[in-house]
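Priority: medium. Attachment 1 of 2:
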């Protein structure tokens, strides 16, 4: 198996048959500067791995073959990039087998966004040394956390996403690496779940994020009961954004999910 071409962007292959999860990951990684390819089957994954991506995010529950077999075969064919298994399987044996088959990391679903981003960066840095190509991107939201803004002249935090020109008193700024949120000069105090929901909505600002994606990504365990907990969390988050005068609003798309969009009624 060949190596990546020196100077090429850091490439990530997502192997995931759940479209909601895959598209969310793809958009998020592309915003951070990665070149991302998405496939849904094990056979397509093996073909794509032969093009030597720097990092492979591999789901185990694929429609045509077990992701563990994809991992094993890729290593047998000489692939030396990073492989991270992302799966709802929580059994310790699966983790051990995955690592024995050549996986570099194992992250059970659902997982915190910031943790997934950090692990991808670590694998990409290692793969850049092994395969060649560009080092892992360091987007604005990946920089080290800045000091809190000074009361008189805040320098402003690094942001995971901000609407163009979002510098007014109600501008929402989210730093996923530091897990901090500002509305203008005011830093908001959010719970872990409130931050997770807001960070995901902000990363997909203007697009609908389904209830299923929010539950699978933000909550720390597989959720088989009512999603009422999401509605309660969303209600608290909306109240905090409104109280702080944020120039965004969380819009409910009935029967689908939620969308974070600019509040055109907010004062200048």
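Attachment 2 of 2:
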């Amino acid at each position: 198996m060949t190596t990546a071409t020196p100077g090429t962007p850091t490439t990530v292959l997502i192997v995931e048959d759940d479209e909601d999860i895959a598209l969310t990951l793809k958009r998020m990684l592309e915003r951070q500067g990665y070149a991302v390819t998405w496939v849904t089957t094990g056979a397509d994954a093996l073909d794509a791995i032969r093009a030597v991506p720097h990092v492979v995010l591999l789901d185990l529950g694929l429609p045509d073959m077990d992701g563990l077999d994809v991992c094993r075969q890729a290593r047998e064919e000489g692939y030396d990039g990073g492989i991270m298994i992302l799966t709802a399987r929580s059994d310790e044996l699966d983790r051990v087998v995955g690592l024995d088959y050549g996986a570099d990391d194992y992250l059970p679903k659902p997982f915190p966004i910031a943790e997934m981003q950090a692990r991808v960066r670590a694998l990409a840095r290692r793969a850049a040394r092994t395969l060649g190509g560009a080092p892992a991107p360091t987007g604005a939201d990946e920089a080290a956390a800045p000091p809190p803004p000074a009361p008189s002249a805040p320098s402003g935090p690094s942001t995971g996403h901000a609407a163009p020109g979002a510098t007014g008193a109600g501008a929402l700024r989210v730093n996923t690496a530091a897990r901090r949120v500002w509305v203008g000069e005011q830093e908001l105090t959010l719970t872990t779940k409130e931050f997770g929901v807001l960070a995901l909505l902000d990363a997909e600002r203007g697009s609908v994020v389904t209830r299923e994606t929010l539950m699978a990504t933000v909550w720390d365990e597989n959720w088989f009961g009512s999603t009422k907990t999401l509605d309660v969390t969303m209600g608290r988050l909306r109240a905090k954004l409104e109280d702080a005068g944020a120039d965004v609003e969380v819009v409910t798309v009935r029967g689908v999910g939620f969308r974070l969009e600019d509040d055109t009624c907010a004062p200048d």
